[in-house]
Design a protein that fits this description.
About 70% of the residues lie in helices and about 10% in strands. It is α/β, with parallel strands linked by helices.
Length: about 375
């Protein structure tokens, strides 16, 4: 006796109980019937088990799987046995995989519902752990640098030369672009007020002093934080995932000396050189604006800078750049070595390295600027 008719299935009662006959195409693109009418009808029939007949079943995809999963879940709640032997082999395999490991709903709810005090406590503990690890890392780096000055550090000279090339010449293009644009922007900003007093010539003073003391070192440091600091964190984080750092420790090679020290020295060397280059390119950018928009010749522009911006101003920027290089290398390498052992952890370490570097750069720049004002430099 037929208990239900549909274009896609037929529910028939016989001596075996209920048999569900599948008919035709069971793919999403051809349309899957709604399972709700069938589920509403099953309790009234009081079946002990449900059999399947797939002799007339056509092509199928996840549309059939969705229908069967809904039927099986409802049958389990009503204590109805599902006999799967007549289903296609592929369907049986997929159903077995679908119900092999049930979803842990209780654990997910518990995690999402973590109390606010527990979250604050977790963040506090993590901050304390990170701060302790950072102090330990800084101490290890300092010891490694002392060993380098004593000629007892263990790293390959080829690694140092490679890091110098990667952090220096390879960064010239982006440093050139940013520095020229910053110099042009400073010239435009200064001209807005200076032209009111007919003092356009002092654009050179503004651009020269701004690039020499602040913007040259600052913009170079931010570029290197996003370019080189993130690269350090990603590389060391990937080595942490691949257990290469553990391998170095196993063969009694210090990861600080072998991996961190060449990168630290490379940035200490290249950052002042890049700062000098950025200062020059920023001054060139200001000269372009002055010559094209305010009728100030290049000779007048550079003569004005030479008379106003002394060598001490450039030295302050160079010292800042060297300090910024130490901060960028330390933050990038620390976040890389601190990285977890997964792909997402490596990405988080690279992001954290950039954020940490920029924060340290701004704080250090503020401290150095205040000290220079107090000391009269």
């Amino acid at each position: 006796m037929k208990a239900n008719n549909s274009e896609k299935y037929q529910l028939i009662t016989d001596e075996n109980g209920l048999t569900l006959h599948f008919v035709g195409d069971w793919r999403f693109q051809s349309g899957i019937p709604d399972i709700e009418p069938l589920l509403l009808q099953l309790p009234a029939l009081h079946p002990q088990r449900i059999h399947f007949n797939c002799e007339q079943l056509g092509p199928w995809d996840t549309g059939l799987m969705t229908f069967l999963v809904g039927l099986i879940q409802s049958s389990q709640k009503n204590n109805i046995e599902i006999v799967r032997e007549a289903l296609p082999t592929g369907v049986q395999t997929l159903l077995q995989l679908s119900f092999a490991i049930p979803e842990r709903r209780s654990e997910r709810r518990a995690f999402l519902g973590q109390p606010i005090l527990a979250k604050i406590g977790s963040v506090t503990i993590e901050m304390h752990r990170s701060w302790t690890e950072m102090l330990t890392f800084i101490g290890d780096v300092f010891i490694a640098f002392i060993n380098f000055l004593r000629g007892k550090a263990h790293f390959r000279t080829s690694d140092l030369l490679f890091q110098i090339e990667a952090a220096g010449p390879s960064a010239l293009l982006i440093v050139t672009l940013i520095s020229v644009l910053v110099g042009m922007i400073l010239a435009f900003v200064g001209a807005v007020q200076l032209r009111l007093f007919g003092a356009e010539i002092f654009i050179a003073n503004l651009v020269g002093l701004g690039m020499a003391r602040e913007m040259g070192a600052m913009m170079t440091a931010i570029i290197m934080a996003g370019r080189t600091g993130a690269a350090y964190a990603a590389l060391l984080g990937t080595m942490q995932v691949n257990e290469e750092i553990d391998a170095l420790k196993t063969i009694a090679v210090s990861p600080i000396e072998f991996l961190v020290l060449p990168r630290l020295i490379a940035l200490i060397i290249t950052m002042p050189l890049l700062c000098i280059y950025a200062d020059f390119m920023g001054i060139i950018g200001g000269a372009i604006v002055s010559a094209t928009m305010f009728d100030i010749s290049f000779f007048q522009y550079f003569q004005q800078i030479q008379g106003f911006v002394g060598l001490s101003h450039f030295m302050i920027g160079i010292v800042k750049a060297a300090i910024f290089g130490v901060l960028i290398a330390t933050a990038g390498c620390f976040r890389g070595i601190q990285s977890g052992r997964s792909a997402s952890a490596v990405g988080f370490s690279a992001t954290s390295a950039v954020v940490t570097s920029i924060v340290l750069i701004i704080v250090a720049d503020a401290i150095i600027t205040v000290l220079c004002q107090v000391l009269g430099f």
